[in-house]
## 1
Amino acid sequence: RISDLQGPGSKFPPLQNLTNLKEL
């Protein structure tokens, strides 16, 4: 979920974050 990726506890680095957003 986008909220999980943007949360303070996000474990995803910026590049991985973008990849996950594209998959949604």
## 2
Amino acid sequence: VLAIDDVRYGYNAAKDQFEDLMSAGIIDPSK
């Protein structure tokens, strides 16, 4: 995670994996 500069990348606890949280729907840009 520290090696990736993308602020949208993080840990999805529901899937137990690291991924783009915006495309996964965890981060909502409209809020």
## 3
Amino acid sequence: MTPVLPGADAARPARLWLWPANAVGALVLVAAAAVQPIVFLSQPCDGPDCDPHGYFTIFAGVPAAGVAIVALTALVLLAARNRAGFGTMLGAAAASGLLLLWFAGLVAVEVWLPIAAVTVVVAVLAFAGLRFAPPRVRARPGLEEPPYPSLG
């Protein structure tokens, strides 16, 4: 039975599993972003198309680091139960997909297909979180206001 939050509609139960599932997806996307440049740079390189100056390292590593930073930002937002984490995860998945499309011609299908599958699963989870996740379930920590002195 799916739990229903207080004050929520019983017809639309809370899907509390979306928060940890997206947090795990963020960690997996960070790992996939770290693996992408390693895989791209481990491809055999022969002939004049090789990159003796390391430009390919820069063009593969910097975008992958950007994807990892966005995914880690989404992880922090999801840990705080902020709904913006789902949108940030969707952005990280889109950036990872663009990175895969950018290097698709350089890498064999067997190499980038698992990373593409992870990207699609993370994007679907993030979209489901945007659509179905309940608002913050924990109260915000704060200081209680002291009682005001009375004049009478």
## 4
Amino acid sequence: MEKPPALENDSVVLKLISDGERYSPWNDQDLCKVLRIKEEFQVYCVYRDAIKTI
């Protein structure tokens, strides 16, 4: 069974900036706490693909 993506994945880094404060939640529970703290977020997604060597 395939696992859903999680913030704990080593290839994913989530960084949030709101009102000059920076947040970098390391797991799903931390992300939920951050989203409850602020009433309004502007969300920008930047995807960076890591170069993998074989």
